[in-house]
Amino acid sequence: MRIKDKVVIVTGGGRGIGEAICTKLASEGAKVVVTDISLETAKVTAEKIISSGGEAIAIKTDVTQLSDVTSMVKQAKEKYEKIDVLVNNAGWDKIEPFLQNGEETWDKVIAINLRGVFNTCYSVLPIMIEQGFGKVINIGSDAGRVGSTGEAVYSAAKGGVIAFSKTIAREMARHKINVNVVCPGPVNTPLFQEIVKDNPKISTALEKAIPFRRLAEPEDIANAVCYFSSDEASFVTGQTLSVSGGLTMA
Ligand SMILES: NC(=O)c1ccc[n+]([C@@H]2O[C@H](COP(=O)([O-])OP(=O)(O)OC[C@H]3O[C@@H](n4cnc5c(N)ncnc54)[C@H](O)[C@@H]3O)[C@@H](O)[C@H]2O)c1
């Protein structure tokens, strides 16, 4: 087991990539704090882990609210006494041309995808500094590396996550805290299905464009997160890894 007894917080762990990260890390021995804005789905993920013999708790958390995040981190620390790994996975997007976006969309996209990462890092890093160890893995997107039509503000937010992660990696290295980013390409998740439901041709076109000729499955992303969570990645920090079947080679 590659991360036995490590305590891991995952945001947006109720479905899609977040759920796959929770179950993968649990299968490698982690104690998982499954957090999501939907307590119902977070509980389903936690129960799935427990019924397979793993350890998990579910906590409702809206990453856009610092007070919510602080309270979740306090509960996690009280329960498990340490936090080894933070995975910032919660995200949201709406595909439309920038000139059709409203301010409401900008604010929501930035609040969840970028500000959410600030909130969790602000709450967890002091604990990791005190421990003298920790790993942060932020889920970015290839949209934040190479751009993506219809995702201007999302690309900006994810680009912000990448830049923020590099700076935090520099600031935290003296405390033996690693900070890295995993950038998925298109992944077959509920969010992706919602985005393409009105235009299924997008999915086929993407499959043709991806050198490996398929969308990523959530488990492909979870495997990369597992590596960054493990001691095998202890000398790797400030890095951005695309998991996209070769669609982007930035
Ligand atoms: N699916 C893709 O093709 C793709 C591609 C690149 C990057 N990503 C990124 O991967 C991550 C996961 O995406 P997904 O496709 O699994 O999405 P998803 O919508 O299937 O799952 C996202 C989860 O985050 C939760 N969430 C949403 N807002 C939240 C909030 N304010 N606080 C806490 N939790 C919240 C949702 O309830 C949901 O459980 C996101 O950061 C997304 O931007 C996805």
Describe the protein's topology.
Elements: E1 7-10, H1 16-27, E2 31-36, H2 39-51, E3 55-60, H3 66-80, E4 85-88, H4 103-131, E5 134-139, H5 143-146, H6 152-172, E6 177-184, H7 190-196, H8 201-209, H9 218-229, E7 240-243
Parallel strand pairs: 1-2, 1-4, 2-3, 4-5, 5-6, 6-7
The structure holds nicotinamide-adenine-dinucleotide.
Largest sheet descriptor: 7 strands, parallel
CATH architecture: 3-Layer(aba) Sandwich
Q: For the record, give the distance between the C-alpha atoms at the N and C termini, rounded to a whole number.
A: 32 Å
How many DSSP helices? Answer: 9
Describe the strand arrangement of the main beta sheet, using strand numbers.
3-2-1-4-5-6-7
Task: Tell me the series of helices and strands, N- to C-terminal.
Answer: EHEHEHEHEHHEHHHE
Oligomer: single chain
Q: Count the strands? A: 7
The CATH homologous superfamily is termed NAD(P)-binding Rossmann-like Domain
Estimated helix fraction: 40-55%
> What is the CATH first-level class name?
Alpha Beta
Calculate Rg over CA atoms.
Answer: 17 Å
Query: What is the CATH third-level topology name?
Result: Rossmann fold
Q: Note the overall shape.
A: globular
Mean pLDDT figure: 97
* Overall number of domains: 1
**Hey, roughly how much beta strand do the residues contain?**
15-25%
> Which ligands, by name, code or SMILES, are bound?
nicotinamide-adenine-dinucleotide
Structural class determined from secondary elements: alpha/beta
Low-confidence stretches: none
